[in-house]
Amino acid sequence: MNPVDKRRRDFLGQATAIAGAMIAPGVFLYDYAHAKSPGEPASGKVRWGMLIDTTKCESGCRDCVDACNKENGLPGTTRPTDSQWIRKVELKDLRSGKAISAPVMCQHCAEPPCVDVCPTGASFKREDGIVLVDRHTCIGCRYCVMACPYKARSFVHEPTTGQKPDVPRGKGCVESCTLCVHKVDRGGTPSCVEACAAAGHHAIVFGDLNDPESAISKRVRAVATTQLRADLRTDNGVRYQGL
Amino acid sequence: MTAAGTLRAALAATLLLAVSAAGVIASAAAPALDAARSGPCVEDPLVMRREHMDFLKHDRDDTVRRGIRGVKHSLAACVDCHASKSDGRVLGSDRHFCQGCHRYAAVKLDCFDCHAASARPSATAAAAPAPAPVPGAAR
Questions:
Q1: Per-residue model confidence as pLDDT tens digits over A97-135
Q2: Are residues B96 and B129 located together in one domain of the fold?
Q3: Domains: count for chain B
Q4: Are B67 and B87 part of one and the same domain?
Q5: How far is B59 from chain A (nearest CA, A)?
Q6: Are residues B9 and B75 in the same domain?
Q7: Which of A164, A176, B38, B123 is the least buried, fewest Cβ under 10 Å from its Cβ?
Q8: Is B138 close to A169, i.e. CB distance below 8 A?
Q9: What are the extents of the domains in chain A?
Q10: First-to-last C-alpha distance (Å) of chain B
Q11: Containing domain of residue B4, as a range?
């Protein structure tokens, strides 16, 4: 070995040792989910979800729907061509007479059919499980509207007015519940959840399904909850209690 | 007239045309726009004039797809700063920032088919007394 090679080897060996010693403290190869700051990207460690307690949801109450319309700048009209992000569904078992009322919105599936069928990639699932439409790429073909088993998606048929700065929406695109992603990204909760709590019903719990200590995870562990059309194996983020 | 004379006349006419065209360009003054809020823009104004569309396109994907809020080049932040102090909007007349310049440059502006053209309430509260934008007119 010539002396130059030896010097290089010694130098590289020492440099590696020093670099290793400097990097090792404070480096963790694992991390727990933590609250996201607005400037951080959505994390795959989080799975946002909602639990709707149908036993607490009052028949005829539309507080969640109204709050959604207000937050997202929706007109709130219910003609066949109007956007509805939440629908209040009333069910009645004719034999027993048991009546159930519950809001149904985008179920934020882990395996969303709307994403599977989208020809442009506009319909997508975020890292944290929120299913959204990127209106910049949506061509308004409405395949996703057809594919959704929950009738959750709406097409905007007419020019829009009164958009909120955080919720752009316009004619020619498909849209649906965003889980109030603009609020969730800043550490907030969806407006329907807040409105339901403000009315004293507390029928909707929002939280991280992946965090075993979250309120929603504890409830899901403690009581029997169901996902709508669980047979489709879309693994919904929205769960229902008392169906 | 000789051949050389014809040539000279043609040259003179061409020169005259060129001079008058230059005069037109010089007289086309920059659009008069309502003053924005004070303070520097996120980039040099010359850079912004040329490249704002690319900045916006890049950062929109960060926000929509990855959930990063408060990006440097955010359309809502543009509107907050550049909204006219009279009505809190960037559209409406050729004095309004976005509409005025896009009209001057003859470039179609379709951001506001979907996006709100009014400054956010938090931004207008911090600025000079501006009347609240009419909710139904946000387009």
A1: 999 999 999 999 999 999 999 999 999 999 999 999 999
A2: yes
A3: 2
A4: yes
A5: 12
A6: no
A7: B38
A8: no
A9: 48-241
A10: 63
A11: 1-30
Interchain CB contact of A82 with B (< 8 Å): no
User: Token pair of A129, please?
Assistant: 């499980």
Q: Are residues B61 and B25 in the same domain?
A: no
Look at residue A27 in the predicted model and tell me its pLDDT. 54
The average confidence (pLDDT) of chain A is: 91
**B128 with B71, same domain?**
yes
Distance, in Å, from the CA atom of B52 to the CA atom of B45, rounded to the nearest integer, reads 9
**According to CATH, what is the number of the domain A48-241?**
3.30.70.20
pLDDT at B31: 83
- What is the separation of C-alpha A233 from the centre of its chain, rounded to a whole number of angstroms? 17
Q: Check: CB of residue B112 under 8 Å from CB of residue B91.
A: yes
Task: Give the integer Cα–Cα distance in Å for A165 and B76.
Answer: 6
Nearest CA in chain A to B56: A136
Give the closest-approach CA distance of B113 to chain A in angstroms.
Answer: 6
Q: Give the pLDDT confidence of A171-207 residue by residue, as tens digits.
A: 999 999 999 999 999 999 999 999 999 999 999 999 9
| Contact between chains at B114 and A42 (C-beta distance less than 8 A) | no
Residues B21 and B40 in one domain: no
Residue A62: band (very low, low, confident or very high) from pLDDT cuts 50, 70, 90: very high
CA distance A120 to chain B (A): 14
Q: Average pLDDT for residues A62-90, to the nearest whole number?
A: 95
Say yes or no: A40 contacts chain B, CB-CB below 8 A: yes
Question: How many angstroms away from the CA of A160 is the closest CA of chain B?
Answer: 7
If asked whether residues B69 and B104 sit together in one domain, one would say yes
DSSP-derived 3-state class of residue B96: coil
B67 to A135: CB separation less than 8 angstroms, yes or no: no
pLDDT category, B132, cuts 50, 70, 90? Answer: very low
- CB contact under 8 Å between A181 and B67, yes or no, is yes
What is the sign, positive or negative, of the torsion defined by CA atoms of B54, B56, B61, B62? Answer: positive
Give the burial string for A196-215 (b: 16+ CB within 10 Å, else e).
bbeeebebbbbbbbbbeebe
Residues B62 and B97 in one domain: yes
Q: Does the beta-carbon distance from A165 to B135 stay under 8 Å?
A: no
> Two tokens at B72?
């440097």
- Mean pLDDT over residues B44-65, rounded? 94
